[in-house]
Design goal:
3-stranded mixed β-sheet, two-stranded antiparallel sheet, 5 strands, mainly beta, about 0% helix
């Protein structure tokens, strides 16, 4: 997953090649981990139900189904 460490106001930018997206992502500190959840980015953005981190597709990209 191409993800950066999130802050309260900045979303984690996800490259579609790194899907499926999940939280917590590898850039998050270990002490802050919660159960892993996979996020649906078909609309371009998703929020983690545990920590509220927003994940957003890389600008100009779309999710391609199988």
């Amino acid at each position: 997953m191409s993800a950066s460490s999130p802050s309260a106001s900045e979303p984690v930018i996800v490259d579609p090649k790194a899907l499926p997206a999940f939280c917590p992502n590898p850039a998050m500190p270990v002490w802050n981990h919660h159960p892993r959840v996979f996020l649906d980015l078909t609309t371009g953005e998703a929020m983690c139900p545990y920590c509220g981190t927003v994940y957003r597709l890389k600008p100009g990209e779309v999710v391609h189904g199988h």
